[in-house]
TrEMBL record:
It comes from the Bacteria. InterPro entries: LytTR_DNA-bd_dom (IPR007492). The keyword Cell inner membrane does not apply. This is LytTR family transcriptional regulator. Residues 1-21 are annotated as: Disordered. It comes from Spirosoma rhododendri.
Amino acid sequence: MNSPSVSDKTSPPSSSNPVENRVKLAGTPAFDPASVIYLEGSGNYTIIHFTDGRRELVAMTLVVVAKQLPALLRVHKSYAIAVTGIGHLRWVGKVNSKRALVITMRNQAQIAVSRRRGAQMAPVLSQRTGIIIGQPLAKM
C-alpha cells in the first residue's frame, strides 16, 4: 500500500488564494478580481476601477472584461459593479414619475442604474448588501 506523500496531505488549492485567482487581461498586470470595485465601458475600451483608487484602461469591451470577472453585476450598459463596493443606494427623481436608482460606491463614485433595470435591481442590491434604499422625499 502506498502511503500518502507530503503533497497529498496539504489542503487542496483554495479559491481564496489571491495568487491563483489573479486575472490577466491584455495590456494590464495580473490583478486580484476582489480588488475591482467597478468597470466603466466606453465603446471598445473598459476602465477597471480598483479599491485602492488605481485605474487601468484596457482595449476590450465591457462585455469581454465582465466575462472574466463573473462576480460583478451589470447595472447599466456602461457599468458593472462589485456588490461589495456599494456604499449607499438611493432613488432620485420625482415620486410618481421616472426615477433612477443611483449607487454610491465606497470610493464615492456615483453610478446610475439604467431605468430599465432599476426596479428589478433595487431589491436585489438591497438584499445582497443589507443596505436599505433611501426613498426620495415627496414634494410638499
